[in-house]
Design goal:
193 residues, alpha+beta, GIY-YIG endonuclease, 2 domains, five-stranded antiparallel β-sheet, 5 strands
């Protein structure tokens, strides 16, 4: 045991059976704030995790060896209220805490996102709208720009997935005459849990 070495409780952002503790103990040479996002070794791979607790190391019986935290990715990533909310959701819905916390952490794929953004720009240039889409854009644009001072307009388009509803909204927003805020709500399918 080294002087000032800390034991850190970390919840891996992955599924762990509910029959066992939802966190693991790791060692760190420095204090890591609760709520920090870290990279940890878990079995034979590296995963991200959230720090739940930190305390000074102590003499452990049985010569128990703890692994070290790989890297601190971001200190104070989640605050106390977010951690309490995640624990409540985990207990109330009987869901692993790591899976609940995973939904609090956006995917860290900057390089992939940059490539996708470039690909999307190319695709947008090649999009040809059909008659119904152009008609919907014209109708939305007319109502918004004609009575913009009233505000809070709501529009709902019906159609199957991939039919181009979002494209209609994007084109209608581009037609706004004033610098207005726009909120588009889209459902998200989270199938990577």
């Amino acid at each position: 045991m080294k002087k000032n070495q800390r034991i850190i409780d970390v919840v891996p952002l992955t599924k762990i059976p509910l029959t066992r503790d939802q966190f693991f103990y790791y060692l760190s040479e420095q204090e890591i704030p609760v709520g920090s996002l870290v990279s940890i070794p878990l079995f034979n791979r590296s995963v991200e995790g959230i720090v739940l607790n930190s305390r000074y190391d102590f003499e452990r019986l049985g010569n128990i060896q703890l692994k070290k935290i790989n890297k601190v990715l971001e200190e104070n990533f989640l605050d106390k209220s977010q951690l309490e909310l995640a624990k409540f959701i985990s207990e109330y819905y009987v869901s692993p805490l790591g899976i609940v916390l995973k939904s609090f952490v956006p995917k860290r794929t900057k390089s992939r996102n940059k490539k996708q953004a470039e690909k999307s720009k190319k695709l947008v240039k090649n999009i040809t709208l059909n008659t119904e889409q152009n008609k919907a854009i014209a109708e939305i644009s007319k109502k918004i720009n004609w009575k913009l001072e009233i505000g809070n307009w709501k529009f709902l388009l019906h159609g199957p997935s991939g039919s181009g509803k979002t494209e209609v909204y994007i084109h209608a927003i581009k037609n706004l005459k004033k610098n207005e805020q726009v909120l588009i709500l889209l459902p998200e399918l989270n199938d990577d849990i």
